[in-house]
Amino acid sequence: MKNKILFLLIILNLLISCKKVNLLTPSIIPPPTEFKNNEKIPQYPTPTPVLPIPPEKTEEKNIIVTPEIVKDGIVFGGYGRRFKFNNEWHILATNEYKYDPNTKILTPTYKGAILKIDNNGKTITKIHSISLNDDLEKTEYWTNLNSRKVLIEQDKVKIPTGGTYEVVYKYPDKKYEYKNIKFYRDNFRYISDVLFNLKGKNTSDLINWIDSPDTCKREYILHKLNFDNPNFQGRIGSAHWEVKLLYFKGKFLLFTHPTVYDYYTNGFIPPSSEDFYLDSKYYYTIEVGKDTSDPKNWKTNEAPWGRRGVIDYYRYDGTKIYISGGSTYKYQYNASDGYWYIMSSEAYAADVLDGI
């Protein structure tokens, strides 16, 4: 018995003297967590602030809407262009309603109204309108009066619907010949005038429109040639390739080419010259409103496609003009007979090049 008691005391002593152990602690402790670089952590948006609490007391007011009633309960809305015609003010209204003052309801009745306002502004008279079943976008008087192109005069309104322009060519006063070039064109010419003839329609009552063959005519005169004081059309014009004048976005664009006389006034190319070109990499522009007869008003521009003698196609997308294809020609000197010949040509693919 004593031995058992002694054994128990020894065991108890050992337990008391041993290091305390946390039985809930894991036997394997993982490494510390590696957090991402703070600089790479996205900046989240700031939360929306809480809206202020409205005041406890609010003041309520009735809103009174007074429609503009002409007569018989007619109301107009969607006002558009206002203009003066026959010394009287007019205005366009998209919508027309019948107003019921009892129910305060507007009922659509017509559309596309032309209204006349008297001098004191107190009386509105409807001149014309169309049925709700009609299409305003296909109604001639409505689209014409709302167009930016319409011209409103004292007693007539007109609008251009199309037109043409004519380029007038003239020839030098004397005949010119090259001294040492074989096989060349000698029909030298230049542009002297540009004639505009805009066709359109006009009206005297704002409703009925008739064709007007001569809505607008205008002549633009270009400067004359001067051999001793040449301008960009050269001393004697051009003959080698086509001279072309285009009208685009309020400007004239002129494409022309030099002649031998623009480089050598005697028409003789020295044998010592390098390979010779009569193509041009320049074009000239002027705003239509400026004096076209003054060479100083014309601007010289370098074409993005470089030198061209012939251009296959001109194209445009409403913003720029582009060219497609074309070719250029080089003259070389032949010492055996003392003449210059077109010895090589370079044709360009029909790709659309940078626009101007």
Q: What is the compact description of this entry?
A:
Helices cover 6% and strands 39% of the residues. The protein is mainly beta. The protein has two domains: 74-146, no CATH class; 151-352, no CATH class.
Strand content: 35-45%
Largest sheet: 4 strands, antiparallel
The structure class reads mainly beta
Radius of gyration: 43 Å
The total beta strand count reads: 15
State the domain count. Answer: 2
- Principal-axes geometry comes out as flat
Terminal CA distance reads 120 Å
Biggest sheet, spatial arrangement of strands: 1-2-3-4
- Mean pLDDT equals 79
Number of helices: 2
Elements, N to C (H/E): HEEEEHEEEEEEEEEEE
Q: Helix content range of the residues, please?
A: under 10%
Low-confidence stretches: none
Protein name: Lipoprotein
Organism: Brachyspira pilosicoli B2904
Structure description:
The protein is mainly beta and 356 residues long. It has two domains: 74-146, no CATH class; 151-352, no CATH class. The protein is 6% helix and 39% strand. It contains two helices and 15 strands. It has helices at residues 2-17, 140-146, and strands at 74-85, 88-100, 105-117, 124-131, 151-152, 157-170, 190-203, 210-221, 244-248, 251-255, 282-287, 299-302, 313-316, 321-334, 339-352. The strands form four sheets. A four-stranded antiparallel β-sheet has the order 1-2-3-4, with helices on one face. The radius of gyration is 43 Å and the shape is flat.
